[in-house]
TrEMBL record:
PROSITE patterns: THF_DHG_CYH_1 (PS00766), THF_DHG_CYH_2 (PS00767). One of its GO terms (molecular function) is methylenetetrahydrofolate dehydrogenase (NADP+) activity. GO terms for cellular component: cytosol. Catalyzes the oxidation of 5,10-methylenetetrahydrofolate to 5,10-methenyltetrahydrofolate and then the hydrolysis of 5,10-methenyltetrahydrofolate to 10-formyltetrahydrofolate. NADP(+) binds at G166, R167, S168, V236. Its EC number is 1.5.1.5, 3.5.4.9. InterPro entries: Aminoacid_DH-like_N_sf (IPR046346), NAD(P)-bd_dom_sf (IPR036291), THF_DH/CycHdrlase (IPR000672), THF_DH/CycHdrlase_cat_dom (IPR020630), THF_DH/CycHdrlase_CS (IPR020867), THF_DH/CycHdrlase_NAD-bd_dom (IPR020631). SUPFAM superfamilies: Aminoacid dehydrogenase-like, N-terminal domain, NAD(P)-binding Rossmann-fold domains. Pathway: One-carbon metabolism; tetrahydrofolate interconversion. This is Bifunctional protein FolD. Residues 6-121 form the Tetrahydrofolate dehydrogenase/cyclohydrolase catalytic domain. Residues 140-291 form the Tetrahydrofolate dehydrogenase/cyclohydrolase NAD(P)-binding domain. Belongs to the tetrahydrofolate dehydrogenase/cyclohydrolase family.
Length: 300
């Protein structure tokens, strides 16, 4: 029986609608509008597209946003100074530095320069540490979106075997930590596979929930999936295809056609995890505004 399609576009619209309602309630009560600053260094075309999409989401929800575009030769110190200015700007509740950065800039130094209370990407070591030990914090947007997809599709990871393929700081490590917490919509047994794993298929065939974030187009085939498993495909890969007008297709890390015949539920690419990332960024920015209001109230 073919798999149920998990519609990330539909679910992300539900979340954005909820965030907009809360944003309007916040404004009516306090006059405060959640503010988000994007910093884009260089002219990476994909980064420009992502920042534009995030800016449009802010506009749609009535958030205040500003995009700061810096040349590729911007120094590390110049970028840190720009972040410090935003850290002290009361209209800005969230700061997002679009990755990747030019090779001469130390990514970790930049992420650590962001005030943790404005780190809506959830990448600052303080927020990563809180995630690992189970404290409330901003969850990285893509992993948080994955958990929300499962929740709103009534797929409870509790007691299930989740296999994560990929160990990046952006997806693999945080989703593994999120789903093993002793919390609702988590509490799973989690296995993480990566480039050093021998016979990945041995592990993927054991997964009740398989999350693939490895950056290899269509690597996971249907015969690597346990019948009835839930498959969450995080991959976004551009592959040449002379049979389509654009000359290329966007595919995931999972071979959709073969997986669709085996899985119980699956996210498509595009239209699965991708839209959730922006929805969760908006949710984190709203939460950041609420957190900063609370800090001010405690200080007065």
């Amino acid at each position: 029986m073919p798999a149920q399609i998990i519609n990330g576009r539909k679910i992300s619209e539900e979340i954005k609608k909820e965030v907009k309602q809360k944003k309007e309630a916040l404004f009516n009560e306090t006059g405060i509008v959640p503010g988000l600053a994007f910093i884009l260094v260089g002219d990476n075309p994909a980064s420009q597209v992502y920042v534009n999409m995030k800016g449009k989401a802010c506009e749609e929800l009535g958030f205040y946003s500003v995009t700061i575009k810096l040349p590729a030769q911007t120094t590390e110190d110049e970028l840190i100074e720009k972040i410090k200015t935003l850290n002290n700007d009361s209209k800005i509740h969230g700061i997002l530095v679009q990755l990747p950065l030019p090779s001469h800039i130390d990514e970790q130094k930049i992420l650590q320069a962001i005030d943790p209370i404005k780190d809506v990407d959830g990448f600052h070591p303080v927020n990563v540490g809180k995630l690992v030990i189970g404290l409330d914090t901003y969850l990285p947007c893509t992993p948080a979106g994955i958990q929300e997809l499962l929740k709103r599709s009534d797929i409870n990871p509790s007691g299930k075997h989740v296999v994560v393929v990929g160990r990046s700081n952006i997806v693999g490590k945080p989703i593994a930590n999120i789903l093993l917490q002793k919390r609702d919509w988590a509490n799973a047994t989690v296995t993480v596979c990566h480039t050093g794993t021998r016979d990945i298929a041995y592990f993927t065939r054991q997964a009740d929930i398989l999350i693939v974030a490895m950056g290899k187009p269509e690597f996971i085939k249907g015969d690597m999936i346990k019948p009835g498993a839930v498959v969450i495909d995080v991959g976004v890969n551009r592959i040449d295809d002379p049979n389509v007008e654009k000359g290329y297709r966007i595919v995931g890390d999972v071979h959709f056609e073969s997986a669709f015949e085996v899985a119980g539920a699956i996210t498509p690419v595009p239209g699965g995890v991708g839209p959730m990332t922006i929805a969760m960024l908006m949710k984190n920015t709203l939460q950041a505004a609420l957190n900063q209001i609370k800090v001010k109230e405690l200080a007065n």
